[in-house]
Amino acid sequence: MVSFRFPFSVSQPPPATCSSATSRPFSAVTAAVTVAAGAAAFAGVAAVSQTNPANQTHPFLQNALNLLFANRSLPLWGSLSLNDAPASVVDSKTGVAFPSVLAESRRLLGIGLRRKRVLGLKNIDVYAYGIYADDNDVKKLLSEKYGKLSLSELQENKEYNDVLLETDIGMTVRLQIVYGKLSIGSVRSAFEESVGTRLQKFGGSDNQELLQRFTSQFKDEIKIPRGSIIDLSREPGFVLRTTIDGNDVGSIQSKLLCKSILDLYIGEEPFDKQAKEDVKLNLASVLQE
User: Fold this and answer.
1) Which domain of life is it from (predicted)?
2) What pTM does this model have?
């Protein structure tokens, strides 16, 4: 069944000159329009679901959801059960499709874009990424504490803002390469800088060995053409598992490393601010199911 509860996402399309990582302002009018549009779309979804008992992805359902998820915002994602979710959601900025569910129970909560400024002249789209959290873990570990809070209360709750970083919830950040000239060495160097900064931020300066263990997984012989997929997954017990195009390249047990990786995408200074806000809103919707 489709749930008719909507998180109050108020994302607006950014101006053409703005970066995709810019936060979008709150507007009561926008909220009303978003909910009204969502209700109309999901009324159609419900009708399709009733006539499609085999739960196959229907073209109307897929197109409606892709339209609602334009500009990479996923304002209504938490309102669908895992069984009713479409097979994939397309990122309108890059054309990359992300599965709505990974590993049977990890739900897509947000889509973001990693951009890199080159020589101070222009931004290059390096990869699109999808952020997933295990539905069962979220409800088991977070519902009792946060499930009864309103959206506004959750937004003001500092612990809630950091809960995905700190809690042993199964998560995956899926990176899909969109820049055709990216080398594995560039990926390794980028992680050395970004993850190294986070390790120092959370654990001090004596973490070079841990950083080297992680970055050494990205070996020179690995090719990552456009369309390649890198999965960074936090498994039970704070184990970071890395796969590239479905091949397991290493696992490291470290809460500090898991937190440092996730902080790149949902921390205080994420690569894409709108993606982080979508994750918070859709996580709240899951908790209130």
Assistant:
1) Eukaryota
2) 0.75
